[in-house]
Amino acid sequence: MNATQTAPPRHKVPESVLVVIHTPGLEVLLIERADAPGYWQSVTGSKDTPDEPLATTCVREVAEETGIDVPALAAGALRDWGLANRYEIYPRWRHRYAEGVTHNTEHVFGLCVPAGTPVRLAPREHTAFAWLPWREAADRCFSPSNAEAILLLPRLAGQPHPPS
Predict the structure, then answer these.
(1) What is the mean pLDDT of the chain?
(2) Rounded CA gap, 81 and 111, in Å?
């Protein structure tokens, strides 16, 4: 590629993670989107490549968005809840994906952190954070799938897989 050519735009992979970060006392971390004031959510993020392992995506996104170092936490702190949501991508964010992509598959994880865990936001992505009791956190989420995941927290926290 010569100096006048530019790389083609890189599109987001339509497969992502939702990481519900919580304390043992079921306080949930929510972060407010910088590009959508009033939109509170858990950590979310797309895979960098289609073959990136989901746990790797979780570790990267949690570090980028909150500064929390997942590998430094206790073994088993990050748990795959065995849930996946398929949803239509909000039209305001669809331009980030390849033409014709309208849906995303989101895999749900829980991350248990000690109470008082410090948070360092990525200012280009988020403007504020709050630790809230789980029911209040669910009520504040703009995303229905995020709210539903938080409502499952009392049942799923501490379990490696959802009960059958």
Answers:
(1) 90
(2) 10
8-state DSSP, 16 = E
Question: CA-to-CA distance for 30 and 50, rounded, in angstroms?
Answer: 27
Tokens 């929390």 belong to 68
Mean pLDDT of 29-49: 94
DSSP state of 8: P
Q: What is d(CA 39, CA 101) in angstroms, rounded to the nearest whole number?
A: 23
Of 158, 162, 161, residue with least CA distance to 74 = 158
Round to whole Å and give the CA distance between 109 and 154.
14
pLDDT single digits (tens) 86-144 = 988 888 889 899 999 999 999 999 999 999 999 999 989 999 999 999 999 999 999 99
The residues, ordered by sequence, that sit 6+ positions from 77 with a Cβ below 8 Å of its Cβ are 70, 111, 112, 113
- pLDDT tens-digit profile of 52-69? 999 999 999 999 999 999
Which region holds residue 107: left if phi is over 0, alpha if psi is between -120 and 50, else beta?
beta
Quick check: helix, strand or coil at residue 148? helix
